Backbone:
């Protein structure tokens, strides 16, 4: 993905801190063109957590497009 302007990232972090509290302010924000979804269209948040935590991905048989997970993992590891 293209480089995201730092003012946008800082603005999002500030918005989270203002609306939820400083404890919820993210250390890092990543942008993605697509998210891993099941065939029925639900976002597989478990896979996003697994990628962020460096865990094995586990069961991915219900993914609509497995290539999305590979792209996200590659982007996160950069």
Residues:
């Amino acid at each position: 993905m293209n480089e995201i302007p730092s003012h946008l990232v800082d603005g999002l972090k500030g918005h989270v801190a203002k609306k939820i509290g400083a404890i919820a302010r993210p250390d890092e924000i990543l942008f993605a063109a697509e998210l891993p979804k099941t065939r029925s269209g639900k976002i597989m948040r478990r896979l996003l957590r697994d990628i962020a935590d460096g865990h094995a991905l586990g069961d991915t048989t219900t993914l609509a497009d497995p290539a999305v997970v590979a792209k996200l993992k590659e982007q996160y590891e950069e």
Remarks:
- Residues 32-78 form one domain.
